[in-house]
Amino acid sequence: MTTPRPIRVVVADDHPIVRSGIVGLLESADGIEVVGQAADGGQAVALAASERPDLVLMDLRMPVLGGAAATERIVAAGGTRVLVLTTYDTDDDLLPAIEAGASGYLLKAAPQEEILAGVRAVAAGETVLAPSIAAKLVRRVRAEASVPVALSPRELEVLRHVAAGRSNPEIARALHLGEATVKTHLGHVFEKLEVGDRTRAVTRAMELGLL
Fold first, then answer.
1. Which of the residues 20, 77, 151, 201 has an alpha carbon 20 to 30 A from that of 115?
2. pTM passes above 0.70
3. How far apart are CA 4 and CA 145, in angstroms?
């Protein structure tokens, strides 16, 4: 009977003692092999490229390159999944990591068995979230869904002209406004719709039923 290939893991954490503890936990488990250790996000990206591990166990707040940015680069390169293991569960930490492509998000305070199970699950292609993290995401999604985007009448008027293909000077003349005022209204529209350009503003407004 052929022995299954071990899960190859890189551990990224800027605290040597914490990193050593995580490595010791992984190496004590069956079927897991630590193939590299990184003290910052830049080293994690380099090790992921050179070692091609199955998984990087990634801390978030690290020097040189943060965990979310490192995750984005590793995931973009393909072939390696990322499981975040951190002390932090704030939205400012959580959302960038998830958006960067992390396949899991666990807290260092989790039981050792939960961390090992998370490593195995993510290596197998699953997504893993600590219960508190999953609850936080659910609450955020529900809150966003319950708060409709509200544009002022003037902002809607400006956006309708944008949808008609008119330039800022043309909109200013049509509405008897200064160009700077039109730009200000558009800036508010972009912010409320969470977009970065005119085309996306129009399509997003259509998606929301505003146009």
1. 77
2. no
3. 45
